[in-house]
Amino acid sequence: MEELPDRIAGMFEGREIFLTGGTGFLGKVIIEKFLRCIPNVGKIHILIRSKKGKDPRQRLDEIFNSA
């Protein structure tokens, strides 16, 4: 029987993923897992809203720069 992690990775391979809550604690963990464990994922789309006077692009830049 195929290993479960391999089956999951195969299921997302080449697919596009839409993630809400990507700037929260769990969202960051999920994004990291996808990027590390499923290198052949097609695209990851992240819904980010404005918050505390910062536009979504600024928030995304802060996330990438804090890693």
Poorly predicted runs of 5 or more residues: none
Alpha-carbon distance between the termini?
37 Å
The dominant shape is: elongated
**Mean pLDDT over the residues:** 87
Succession of helices and strands: HEHEH
Provide an overview of this structure.
The protein has helices spanning 4-12, 25-37, 56-66, and strands at 16-20, 43-47. It has one domain (4-66). By secondary structure, it is of the alpha+beta class. 49% of the residues lie in helices and 15% in strands. Helix 2 (25-37) links the parallel strand 1 and strand 2 (43-47). It has 3 helices and 2 strands, in the order αβαβα. The longest helix is centred in the middle third of the chain and has 13 residues, at 25-37. The model has no long low-confidence stretch (mean pLDDT 87). It has a two-stranded parallel sheet. Keywords: Lipid biosynthesis, Lipid metabolism, NADP, Oxidoreductase. Belongs to the fatty acyl-CoA reductase family. It catalyses: a long-chain fatty acyl-CoA + 2 NADPH + 2 H(+) = a long-chain primary fatty alcohol + 2 NADP(+) + CoA. Residues 19-64 form the Thioester reductase (TE) domain. Catalyzes the reduction of fatty acyl-CoA to fatty alcohols.
List keywords for this structure.
single chain; 67 residues; alpha+beta; 3 helices; 2 strands; 49% helix; Fatty acyl-CoA reductase; FAR; alcohol-forming very long-chain fatty acyl-CoA reductase activity; lipid metabolism; NADP
Summary of the model, kept short:
The chain has 67 residues and is of the alpha+beta class. The protein has helices at 4-12, 25-37, 56-66, and strands at residues 16-20, 43-47. The protein has a two-stranded parallel sheet with strand order 1-2.
